[in-house]
Structures
1.
Amino acid sequence: MNNQPFVHSSSSSNGFPHRRVEKVAGMNKAQPFVKNTEYGGEAGSVDTPSRQLLLFLTTCNIGHQVEVHLKNGSVYSGIFHAADVEKDFGIILKMASLIRDSRGTKSHSVLVSKPPSKTFIIPANELVQVIAKDLPVCSNNVSNSVQSKKPLELLTDSTISQSYHVDLERELKPWVPDDDLPDCSDLENVFDDPWKRGWNQFEVNKTLFGVTSTFDEELYTTKLERGPRTRELEEQALRIAREIEGENTRDLHVAEERGIQLSGKFDIDEETKYSSVCPHNRFDDTFYEEEEDILLDGCNNLTFGDSSASDGKKPASTGKVYEESWGDSLPSWNNTIVDQSWSNSNKHTRQLMSEQPSKDFPVAGSNIRNESLLGEQRNSKIVGASLYKKPSEESVSGLEDINEDAATSDLACLQLRTSERQSSTDGRLVSSFSDTAKSESSRGWPGSSISRNSENSAASPVSNRPILSPSSSIGSLSSEKSTLNPNAKEFKLNPNARSFKPSPTATRPQSPVTDGSFYYPPVPPMPIHIAYGMGAAFPGQQPMMYNNATQLSPNQAYYSPNSPQYPQQMMVSQQRPVLFMPPSPYQPEMPYKGRDSY
Amino acid sequence: MKKPPAAAPVAKDDGEGEGAKFAMGKVYSVKLITGDEFNGIVLAYDSNPNFVSFEEGMKSKKPGDLKNIRMVNANFITELKNLGKVKDPLAKKHLILLDALKSKERDAISNIERIGIGVTVEAQIIFDTLSKTHPVRWVNTDILAMGEVLIRSPYHSDCVFGGPRVVNNEVKRVLGLTRKKLELTDTGDN
């Protein structure tokens, strides 16, 4: 734009249009102040820091609406465009207009009476001062909002739709009551404690509505002995309370309640503190979310009593605690394992570690008791967990199969985790486990399965698939041993299995048979009717009974036995409620147990 | 902008007196030949063009604040009264984002160009509202929309001329809606 001959407003009061042409070239060179590189300096100019600053400040003016005072007293307002820094600092304004002329009369309608000069040049010898009001002088460490302002072209919807007449913002003032408002002084202490106010709600209720309170504290809590021993008891209670509250805790939440600042680092954000999602876990997140609360509760019973939400906080110290309590029962448990394990200590895994051995090591003497709770909870998640009963190879192979499904973290997961983190110590870690396990095999420990487990974990140290440890499942099953069929084969999910197809030669009644268990007699008006029993699931059970196709009227929906079906019963009958009574060995909660054809 | 390395600026004799007089940080009460007076802190000075940059005020503000900066031609200073000194009125490191400044200038110019000369308030309001969604500019007192359609005074829907039919109708429609939204009387047919 500087290259073009300038369009001067003919009204420029000083009449210097044409002499300035030669200055244009000079200004052109000076105009692009390339300030973000080191200023090389022009020949002949003095490169003092002060000059640098002057140039800097001059450059800051660019684009800013400035007021320029001229020698003759006139004042122009315009957008600072350029300055001739090489010569004498003449400047160029854009869209300049006269604000005050040389006679001192202010021009009221500054911009609307006549069009502003598109470009306006002011030589230095006319220039007295250039005033830039509210100029953002930017420096490195200051984030400059002006420079980062969104350009005008980007309009947000709200600015577009905003009505022209609406004030953008009002200055907020605190509310001051009018003088003539009634003085409701009795409302002023509304938030005081109830006994301080002069109003007893129970009395009022009694008076107004005849309602008497029948509240008796002793119905809800222990009766306090109020007698000669009251003071003594009180003091004792206070002492105990103080003791408890002053206890050192590692639980973030408890610590916060007690006002103890647990973590040294303050960068634990709210999410880490209060979320129930365990961070840094490599396995199924959803699993953790559900289990976390349960485990939090369980944690409190542990000797260690910790439930850290952040990892890596309790290394060796916690480990050592573990070690102490299990010193005799886990001779091969060495420090290195513990340290490695806890270097990214996750309470969950710690807990599992704790509970798992304690199950089978009654001498451990630890207070770990919650494995059954955990086990049950885990059951809900793990499809096949309940199937693991005995130290057999099958159970372990089931492990591998279940790999894809199960999303549990476990002793094995601990192995996995530490193996992922410190691959160099994989062998050591795992082997010690297996050693431990083997030494206890006489106690019914699934030694073989552990060793196989170790193979698994060693073989795929970096896979994220959790390996279900039979040990934990055994632990979890302790309460259910009685109900499980010790001889049943364990379930192996075979994704390529064909769906069940009852063979046509299987006993199949040609006519309705009155048999109590599976029978579902056809009723012609019934719309849909499918009854697929679980018969085939049980070895030695009676064959499955289902309705003969001939008994269905043609327009009734009917599931052909050849179509892939899962043996679920769908009883859709509006007219005859039929109770499906499974035969006794059928266990509803484990429908797939021991099925052969699958 | 980085400051030049401390090694050897070409030390031209710029008159020690002047340099010392306008040393950075000095606070002066300045009087100009125009009669203007103010108090300012010296931020920068160069004797070659003999210009001084003042920060208005007597106390140095924080680096993030906006300042009133005055670039004064030292030749026109009539009186200087020393009011003291402040330390480090400017931050050490300086940063200029030239592109940002250029776009700032563009915005400022377009802002001024939006103002119609000698138009009524109503016209200006219409123009502003239209400009949010359509390209409009002033042609004397007429609004040129989409580069093709002219809206003449008094800016009703029947004052829309020119352009292809489609564009014309579009502008008519938008104008009608705008008027309705602004609750201006609309005597034209929509």
2.
Amino acid sequence: MNLTALPVSTLREGLRQRRWCVREIVDAQLAEIARVEPSVKAFLHLAEASLRDAAGALDARLERPHAIDALPLAGAVVAVKDAFCTRAMPTTCGSKMLEGYRAPYDATAVERLEAAGALLVGKTNMDEFAMGSSTEHSAYFATRNPYDLTRTPGGSSGGSAAAVAARMAPVALGSDTGGSVRQPAALTGVVGFKPGYGRISRYGLVAFASSLDVVAPFARTVDDVHSVYIALAGRDGRDPTAVEAPVEGGALVAAPLRGLRVGVPREYLGPGVEAAVGDAVAASLALMRAAGAEVIDLSMPHTALAGPCYYVLAPAEASSNLARFDGVRYGLRAPARELLGMYGATRDAGFGDEVKRRILIGTFVLSAGYVDAYYAQAQRARALIADDFVRAFARCDVLVTPTSPTTAFALGARHHDPVAMYQADLCTLPASLAGVPAISLPVGLDGAGLPVGLQLIGPRLGERRLLEIAAAVESLHRQLPPPTL
Amino acid sequence: MVRHTASLARLSLTSEACAALAPQLAAIVRYLDALDALASGASPLDGAPTPLDGDVAAPSLPRDAALAAAPVASETGFVVPQFVGDPA
């Protein structure tokens, strides 16, 4: 039995039936990591010793009758994006600014994973401070796509996506501000689920753009992302933006597709979408139609504003959030004789090029004389984009779009062209700006053997229904073959 | 524009860095100018207000734990370069 290929639910059931123990799961995962990590480079930090210790402790705990009943993620080995604070491991956020930083507390999401019986294997690579779409903006190294090592896994949570795709972990944690979980999920052939804004506490997630940041899981099945979501979601007094609405638990049952109203906004299928991606979306829609769904063509007229809107608002918020990295309380300090010089030298030495670009853009759009032309206009555009979703969900139950206009692009292809890199997020930005839940599912491979992702978007607070629909759509597609590594 | 904005953002950029960034930032700003087409009369997003916590004292991070991550600290606080008067 290859334990690294199994979903969390099967691993847990095997633990319950004593077909294997947690140490066997961990041994299998660590052996796979030792085999493939040198070529994929998904991790910034591996915690092999503490993982083995935690496995032994969990095996001892599971000796008690019914102990597993309280552990919905028992035995799940989880890779965590290096944007989450962890006491037991370094937290760099992919930046030289935080090289060697050890947080004095755990993120709420990390606490809840461990409380549910999950085991942390390490911290994954990412674009610095989550700013990027290829993981090439990591200050340490680029992660490679397991399906083609010359290509990017997407980003910014590219390390987590690659770890799940390469069977180094069944599930992983990422953060999605404008698509940073859904886009890498699409490019690496795994499932990436962005809950709606406020569903999972961000306490301990290094802040990028606070009106957009969402904690989001990766897995290889919809059922597994659902299990992680249920374990993490819910109110947390340490994050005042975490919503009060109840989270519906229980086993996930695929929704009937007969009679389902599937909206297809035509603005997402424009000329920038690769033919192979468009074909895969059309094929998936044909399967849904054959299963009884009603496919509805519709327009979301403000979609084209999402890119400029996001690249005003996110840098504006980032320029404020990243002001805390000043060489005083944590992280890097550059030597200087006076305070302002120390701030400037520290931030010049600690931040990479993309982070500097976004801080400069964010500072510019908030500066006197420009704030009305850019920041206020972007807030207006955001309202119109959110209203597009309200109107669309009056006519349909779910929206279907490509997750990414292209399959995985070559490493280096967009690295020095920021605007070209920003195009990678065009299909994921609107749902982020509207704060609604969305999920990316693998629906096939293109002619070069690269995965294609399909995005399903649900209405505000409609996570449960969206996951039920996603499970039904998942069942229409054959599982992707694993990457050859 | 780059040097002034960098000073606002507390970034000490070299002249070479400013020169390299200028065309990139110009291209990004051109991309953002698509927002010009939007009528200024549209309403901004009216999000739900963030609930306020009660004004209740709660435990905070212990001082030693907070100081442990600082690049330079004394037993009682963060140590920074001189910021009043002429540097020594």
